[in-house]
Amino acid sequence: MLKYKQKTGKQSWQEVSGMKINEVSKMYDITADTLRYYERIGLIPTVNRNESGIRDYTETDCNWVNFAKCMRTAGISVESLIEYVALFQQGDTTRAARKEILIEERAKLLERMAQMQETLDKLNYKIDNYYKCVEFEDTKLK
Model's pTM, two decimal places? Predict the structure, then answer.
């Protein structure tokens, strides 16, 4: 049902039709309520409505949904993402500020990943010890 782009000239493309909120919800495994919330708080830009007032998600809107979901799944703060989207909507003059937000969030993510790796290493150590205990018990019983 979704046709994202149509060629309108030699090198020009135009978005021609979109998706309804339930389709986007299914595509990205996000509830419709969450999509509405993301739009209301500015986590994604405002989605255009059709003549009936129903949200009509374009490819660009879907890209924002995908970006928001990816960043939130990674633990990027809602506040940083809202600021990023607001800056993006202000145009090219905010590129440096947007880049700085992304750099800061990347540093936080790398720290969380290091902490998670440390936790994984500890879990692996504990699990290995259980395997050794079971092996030891098995040899004692023989």
Answer: 0.76
